[in-house]
UniProtKB/TrEMBL annotation:
NCBIfam families: urate_oxi. It catalyses: urate + O2 + H2O = 5-hydroxyisourate + H2O2. Pfam families: Uricase. O2 binds at residues 57, 248. InterPro entries: Uricase. Its EC number is 1.7.3.3. GO terms for molecular function: urate oxidase activity. 5-hydroxyisourate binds at residues 57, 162, 179, 222, 248. This is Uricase.
Amino acid sequence: MSIILGPHQYGKAENRIVRIYRDSPRHEIHDVNVSTALRGDFDAAHLRGDQGTVLPTDTQKQTAYSYAKEKGLLSIESYGLELARHFVDDVEPVSGARIEIEEFAWERVLVDGSEHDFTFVRKGQEIRTAAITVEGSGDAQREWVIGGFKDLVILKTTGSEFHGFLEDEYTLLQPTTDRIMATSLVAQWRFTTTDVDWEATYAGIKQIMVSTFATVHSLALQQTLYEMGKAVLEAYPFIAEIRMSAPNKHHFLYDLAPFGLTNDNEVFNADDRPYGLIQASVLRDDAPDAGPAWTIAGGFA
Ligand SMILES: O=c1[nH]c(=O)c2[nH]c(=O)[nH]c2[nH]1
């Protein structure tokens, strides 16, 4: 028996970078959280404490900030690709890089009915996400881009049923033909190309998902997720796969009978836990291999 070094990667997590575009009086803001991770032969650092091939995490951080100026930070997917390609192409021991990014949205405040040039309020909606992996060099280089969002809280007050489910001796749940359906949606989609209008695609996918949530008469959250994923794949041939995670944010009808009141789906208790957690992926049956697109080396949390 011998003890060996397993998979490893290292980088600078959660660089909070705010990039302002101020080329005109109407400023633009891009507010992101960037994590870098480098892979390659870093055995010596682990086995002997030899840092000769280790590009410090501090340097990775400095690069992330510099690239926000040098390469620009208009779309998190293209910025992440620039950063990952740089580490793999220009830093000798690096054979793979993964860049994970969250973007916090801001919107202009209105002053006298007009959008202000340089004052913003944080948008309460979803956080946009990207995960970029670049591996190998030269003609053998491969790239994987995942776009997505998290924390998209969405609710419909009707148009949702849940009945006909399997029952056993522990089943208490009453069937319903009219309930609130709500979730805080996480979605990630895998691109098959990097030749993409990232901004338009993001806006389009989000719009398709929210409108499908609204218009599908739901018999279960599972069905709604599948329909949302299917609609995205039908609209975007260059998306191979979409993965969704949806906590079922239960709204239970509150019992007002003790007060002599009726409750015709009007007053609910928004319960925060436990919650059903419905997770589903939808993909093309000819989707190209995902490679390391979804996973980080070693499966670290
Ligand atoms: O949409 C739902 N899916 C379920 O699997 C489930 N289970 C449950 O108790 N309520 C619901 N709702």
